[in-house]
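tool_log.txt
---
The assistant was asked to compare two proteins side by side. It first ran the structure predictor on the initial sequence, then on the second. Raw inputs and outputs are pasted verbatim so the downstream comparison step can read them without reformatting.
(1)
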Amino acid sequence: MSDFRLAFRQLLRHRGFTVTAVLTLALGIGIALTAFSWVRAVLLDPLPGTLDSGRIVSVESLSAAGTMIDSSYPDCRDYGAQATQLAGLIVFKERPLNLGNGDGSERAWAEMVSGNFFSLLGVKPRLGRFFAEDDRADSTAAAHVAVISEGLWRRSFQGARDVIGRTVRLNRHEFTIIGVAPAEFPGTINGLVFDVWVPLALQGELTGSSNWLENRASRPLHLLARLTPGATVETARVEMGLIAQRLAREYPKTNAGLSATVVPLAQASFGVQTILASVVRILFGMGVLVLLIVCANLSNLMLVRATARQHEISVRQALGAGWGRIVRSLLAESLLLALAGAIAGMVFTFWAADLLRFFAPASSLPLALAGRVDWSLAPLAFGFVVLATFAAGLAPALWAARPELVSSLRSGRGAGISPHAERWRSALTSLEIALALVALSGAAFAWQAFRQARAISPGFEAGGVLLAAINPGASGYTAATGPEFIDRLSDRLRAQPGVEQVAFAETVPFGLEGGSWEDLTVPGFTPQAGESMKVYRNRVSPDYFRLMRIPLLEGRDFNAADDARMPLVAIVNETFVRRYLAGGEAIGRTFEGWGENLTIVGVAKDAKYARVDEAAQPYFYVPLQQFYHPGVGLAVHVRMNSGVDPAQFLPALRRELRAVDPEVPIFEAATLQDFIGAASFSRRLAAALLALIGATAVGLAALGLYGVIAFAVSQRTREIGVRIALGAQSFDVVRLLATRGLRLIAFGLAAGGALSLALLPLVQRFLGSIGGLDPLAVVLAAAAVSLIAMLACLAPLRGATRVNPVDALRAE
């Protein structure tokens, strides 16, 4: 305790040094903790609010090609009955529902779940209860009961304690509230926050679609399971594969070629980890890099302080203080600084963890992109404290405690820094420059990947288009009346000034929501072994291709005559023709989907559908009027005339929609240009945050170099005064001191450049670059680091040229 009291007094006496050291450490520890909070939310604990989430795994169906796909309820039921490595399975599906009535309704994102959903997850209700056996949640006779989130409870019911037993209106159906989920449980899809949970058995009634409970061919569901005690992911995976093989033999019509696997939650095929896993790993690595630079900076500062305190330390040694006692007292200072920096870093983390929200793309999904910050981060923060204490304080403490009593006492103010300590400071400074170059090169690589993604043509024209999400089926429209509603709204919108085209589609390219596919059979085409015939598609209205500026290469567009009374038709893309029709004549050919024959009436140019870096893939479109059903949500597309801002048309769109039917609300609206930002979301996030981290690293390295040169000037003041008195010019003095700074910069750039190039393949894999990353980025980053480093040297060098020889000699 005496060591800590002495250290505290020393730090209090030198407030400038203390504040600088604490703020620098706070920045380093705060950045590292913030990045870890993102890693934790995305990868380490993707299912908060549940009991022993490490034992919960995702059960994924596998196509013949080995890709993970959604599952069916009958398969899940068989998995649960036959598996011995799983304590139980839950089934769920995300779905937007209308909450309330008419234009005042809002979109509530729901999870439709099996009856054992909350019990298997181990979630405890905030109020009321969860689903029980009497609710028959897995039966077509399921009760109309719902569990709401704490957020919805406070938002719509003002946190009333008597909410249990009250009703909510979902898609025009009344549901009795039986419970409130705790705030710490957002749902089972990582990165999304849900408002309500309802029995899966009611999905047919709520959406107007067929019942999933008995249809083995319908695969819209996600599965999670809890491992039994002693079971592992590997043993469960093997068992699930064997069960899937039995089901494939038993139900060849629906399960032939399908298998199943078990993966940790961080590898599930749904959730934000599918797009952010690599990014947060890189950010955490860069955060630790900044922390190392901070430690090197602090070590330099501590070495300067130890040099200034040589006389004091020598006196203490002369009075009997042992080597260990001196080291311990100096490490106590480092520990106090590290603790103060960690506390300030935690405060920084509570603010910075929400930075991800600023980069969230336009999406209809209930995104919740933020790090998870609470005091459970304290152990990691303490680990950083230990790292900072020893990395920053050990070498200076060992140097200061060296047994050089006589020379230090004779000098009266310290014998000056030794060549060994000088080399240590120089090495630390070069290390800072090297690490800063690695960080800035990483940012440059990320910007390259982002620019490459932005430069790729999506195959359509996004500018000038307004999107708005509606769901007529949730407002009571059926398969027969839905197309009539679409036609009426289209006519009114086309009549508005400034409107060029209007179209409707089920899916918008590049949306985080993903797309829909169908199992196809193409006459005359034999799939290769393991080839999936699940082909992605879109339901679109007439004028969709003109509005999106997707050229039709052959045939015709859909028109008003393509309705439910006419033969089913489709438009396919170029790759569909090349792959399934051998590049031959497409118009008039047929293929089977939904158990029906569809005739190809047009061929559209290839476009990008899910990602800008995706390879060309078969794709097809069907008329919305022929394939409309109430469970389909729609995106209204309105292209405005050139020069008209599409965002300004939103009030008119709302007005015309109310005129057609005030019971159908608009839930989200955005320009198509903003919406497709989801395609490059992860690259944009990596580029922006790595640029911020890289700039911080370079600034810290420049600060360290400034300290080294300034200290060298102070140590050589008498020598400089003598040289000037003997006739040395300012250029001579600058050259003498600048040589050292340039040498440190050169060593740092050489080491940092080599390390950056060595890490290039790894960074390229994580960032998913499209055209390969150019190593020239390292050269440009090195030029930037060199410039900033040389600027950091200017101030102390300028001060050296102004040394007054008389004052310097008098001071000696």
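(2)
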Amino acid sequence: MTLAIDSADTGRRQRRGRRVRIDERMALGCALLSGIAAAASGASPTGARLVDATLVALAVGVVTWAGAAARWWALGLAAAAATALAGDVVLIAFGGAAFALAVWVGLAQRSVGFSRVLIAGVSMNVLVRGETDLPLGVGVSCGVVAAALICWSGIRRRSHRTRRVALWVVGAVVAVGVLATIGAAIGAYGAQDGLVDGNRHARAGLDLVRDGAYAEAAERFDDAAASFDDADNSLNAPWAFAGRVVPIVAQHHRAGYELADTAAAAAADVADSLRSFDVDGLRFVGGRVDLANLRAAASALTTVQASFEGLRSTIADVESPWLAAPVQDRLDALAEQLDEVEPGITDAADAVRLAPHLLGADGPRTYFVAFTTPAEARGLGGFMGNYAVLTADDGRVALTDFGRTGDLNRAVDDPRRVTGPDEWLERYGEFGFTSGANGTTEPSPWSNVTISPDFPSTAQVIAELYPQSGGTELDGVFAMDPYVIREFLRLTGPVEVSGTDEVLDERNVIDFLLVDQYEIDQTDDRVDLLEDVSRTVVERVLRGDLPNPVEAAQALSPMVDQRRLVAWSADADEQALFDRTGLSGALPNLQGGDGVALVVNNAGANKLDAYLDRQLAYSAFVDQATGEVSGTLAITLSNEAPSAGLPDGVIGNYTGDAPGTNRLLVSLYTALPAESVSVDGEPILADVGEERGWTTNSFFVAIPPGGSVDVELQLAGRLALADGYTLVTRPQPLVIPEQQRLVAEDVEGRTLIDVEGTATQPTRYVSGDTAAR
């Protein structure tokens, strides 16, 4: 009877697994060392450094302790998983060694408690340090399964008392985790409305800031601050606090309360700053801007800028791979909206900060304003017909001179000398700037001063020429064309043209300045009319007829985008601001990518470019592996001008061409060198040059009235395509908008870019841009 009982009991023990004797002190000591090592791994299951170190140390220590009695195959699987997920040569070596030791333990069929605990400790430390390209959930799941196998196998082979204690501990941990999770869920549920409403109000406020509606934006940010504060109170309630120690739950809780806390403070600061920002106090009143108001506005915008930066920093801090996709998506959406708004706020803050200097706070400043007309094309856009000089001193701006280009040409009898920029002179010096005696200018350098499409270089030439033409030293140069005048009239109201019955407003000023005025056959009268309109607009702006600067800037921003309104400053900080905002009118930086642009200069001294139609088509074949690119640039120029019925100053010329013939200097700007150039199918030799990183091919064409010419360039070369294919275009701001057709394909026939439509401003296209404009 006794033998039968002993036999059954033995069978049950064999089925459950043989108990093993281990040195518990050794196991606990190894577990302690393993846990300490794991705590230094930087693993972040909750996002709180001290909590993470404690949890990781305890978890790895427990698994290591359990490993002293674990089955060799459970240890081997854990070591294999650690090796596969290591992602580092050193970690792979440790994981592989642990796996080999596990196999040896299995083959030897010995207890070897120290070897087992060593395998468990090394495997767990490799797992918490592993870095692979696999999704986070895969690595975590493998680690949890490996740890569970070791614990199940090792504790199962411990004594009955040990198993019972372990079961109670596991139950208690699970119960605490469940209660903490429930508390966090209650807090999150209570905060949900506040977070959603706060996010909605903040995004609405950001939109209003971008639109310049600062007073309305302040109200939205007040609402956002209140909503985020409510959410923060819910997330910091006592019952929600325990959720900070539960992995995964902790990340979501931390993201919520840190974002709510920071967003509430940031929204309140932004609201206060926007409310103190007196936009109307920045207007010209009696030709003067209050510099104290400018400095106060700069302080307010700087606070707004700092608040946005703080909010962005918090979003970056709470980001975690443990966050659920919907939560991460909301954070990403807010970050993207900040990306859209922050540059504008930064530029506005810098503009207001620099405005006192621009307005003569540190001493008088002198600015030259060029009024151009695209009816007679120049590289910048149009011929400079009139100019103005403005003087700023302690916030007061006065119109101190106004005249014609001819006045500047005739201002002195002595030759003038232009010394730079070197690249500008190398390309354009022959057009009257270095072609005089001993490298001096010819008598009329001002007639071609806007020949280049790059305004910073042109402005430096103007700044050097003006003191030699009877003027003073310049601190800055501006240029604008009739389309900018139209926007000013839209803001200030109509102008009555003296000596005529004309009343000009935004509806008819373009036709008058570009076409109708040239039907007045008396040149002096016509120039006087243009001067009258331009002078009146400038005087109205200085008098304070414009709306506040935000509304004025929004109205004029399309003109800046189209490079019809450009500016240059001798001050490096001011010029950097102009560069960032596009106000500098610089040729776009190719940044190693592809680019095409058409630039024409009128060579007949007439006004036929009001009738010039331009069609540009570019097709590129791209090998993204090698960077080799080949392309065809096709240009069609059509002259829609009549041959009779208009004054000689409009359709005549001094080149001996028939009336209505448009003679042009054509320059094709490309990133790639040209292998061939043809006009109407006939090969020609073009003058090859370079400007601001672009290759240029220039030549003259004569287009009869009602006729057209076709130009084609074959291009080939290598580009830097490590970040993908890009294509830059820069349409010249003339009267009739340029039409573009841009196509780029790779060697496998995939479409990279496919764009067609009207082009009005410089654009950088990237792979994937395929749409009609």
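---
observation on (2): The chain has 22 helices and 21 strands. Residues 554 and 687 are 41 Å apart (CA to CA).
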